[in-house]
């Protein structure tokens, strides 16, 4: 356990029940964050990635802490590092101490959505707007009536910078570039792919065979959203080539195109459902392949993990979306 007495830190070793004193002015409490990161990751390199630091910086911090305590903290292994018995005990005390410091000194003011008059900014693709935006808007209008909901679409590099600067609160949907150090994410739901054909297409199969799928001519979407990459890369891995006669960057033109041709297009099932609901002369069919699902997350930057406004918004989103609440049911369930 750690006790702060004026300008000294007194360490009580829970194993040996001995005391040691260090000058507070010489002790950097950030070293405890490093200790916990390495302890939980079991690896200096993984801890460095989680902290957003270089591996030499983390190693140097461990060296400083080891010298301050006067004994080894971790033992190298083939797969990383393993803590000593004393480190096991110190980690528990350090975790409690840092949690107390955060509670006492760094908890921000509460966020009152009913009085908030600023922007709530989310990054969404065009398909993401279709899936997420209506329900988010309904809840924001009800709970934060003075706020403005702002939906944006940015290139990966721009999005990362905007989230780091606080210009974008959440990115919601399929954003593989945000699976990186410095960002948190929370799983919301899974979506899958369906095939879309015109309603009176000569092929009326509810599930296309691979032979039938490859015999048809295809439209392919290269939208700014990244979800289509899952399908395209899956075909590449299987070395399957289809006959593409149309490429387009847009989803919204597809009903008119598919409804007036013998083409087939493979797309996320939410947008397939939408096109069949709005009166277009198109229908869905199951694809012949076990295409990986689209895992949809909400992402936020670690710099705003404890921000009360960001926390309120992501709690709202998490409460609205899950596989059990998905309004875009699988077509042939």
TrEMBL record:
Residues of the HTH lysR-type domain: 27-84
Ranges in a coiled coil: none
InterPro entries in the cross-refs: LysR-type_TF, LysR_HTH_N, LysR_subst-bd, WH-like_DNA-bd_sf, WH_DNA-bd_sf
Pfam families according to UniProt: HTH_1 (PF00126), LysR_substrate (PF03466)
Top-rank taxon: Bacteria
GO molecular function: DNA binding; DNA-binding transcription factor activity
Keywords: DNA-binding, Transcription, Transcription regulation
PANTHER family: HTH-TYPE TRANSCRIPTIONAL REGULATOR LEUO-RELATED, TRANSCRIPTIONAL REGULATORY PROTEIN
Record-stated family: Belongs to the LysR transcriptional regulatory family.
Protein name: Transcriptional regulator, LysR family
Organism from which the protein derives: Thauera aminoaromatica
């Amino acid at each position: 356990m750690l006790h702060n007495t004026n300008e000294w830190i007194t360490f009580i070793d829970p194993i040996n029940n001995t005391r040691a004193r260090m000058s507070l002015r010489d002790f950097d409490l950030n070293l405890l964050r490093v200790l916990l990161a390495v302890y939980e990751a079991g690896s200096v390199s993984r801890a460095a990635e989680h902290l957003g630091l270089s591996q030499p910086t983390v190693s140097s911090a461990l060296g400083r802490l080891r010298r301050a305590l006067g004994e080894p903290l971790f033992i190298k292994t083939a797969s990383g590092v393993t803590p000593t018995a004393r480190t096991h005990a110190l980690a528990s005390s350090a975790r409690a101490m840092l949690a107390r410091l955060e509670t006492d000194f760094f908890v921000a003011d509460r966020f009152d959505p009913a009085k908030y008059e600023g922007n709530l900014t989310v990054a969404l693709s065009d398909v993401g707007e279709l899936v997420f935006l209506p329900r988010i808007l309904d809840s924001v209008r009800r709970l934060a009536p003075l706020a403005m909901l702002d939906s944006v679409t940015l290139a990966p590099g721009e999005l990362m910078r905007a989230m780091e600067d606080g210009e974008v609160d959440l990115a919601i949907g399929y954003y593989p570039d945000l699976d990186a150090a410095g960002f948190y994410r929370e799983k919301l739901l899974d979506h899958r792919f369906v095939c879309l054909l015109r309603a009176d297409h000569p092929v009326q199969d509810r599930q296309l065979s691979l032979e039938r799928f490859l015999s048809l001519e295809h439209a392919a979407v290269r939208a700014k959203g990244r979800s289509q990459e899952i399908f395209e890369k899956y075909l590449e891995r299987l070395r399957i080539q289809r006959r593409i006669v149309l490429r387009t960057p847009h989803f919204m033109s597809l009903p008119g195109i598919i409804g007036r041709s013998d083409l087939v297009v493979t797309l996320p099932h939410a947008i397939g459902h939408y096109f069949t609901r709005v009166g277009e002369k198109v229908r869905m069919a199951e694809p012949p392949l076990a295409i990986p699902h689209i895992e949809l997350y909400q992402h936020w930057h670690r710099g705003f993990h404890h921000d009360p406004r960001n926390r309120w918004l992501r709690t709202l989103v998490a409460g609205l979306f899950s596989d059990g609440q998905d309004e875009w049911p699988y077509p042939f369930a």
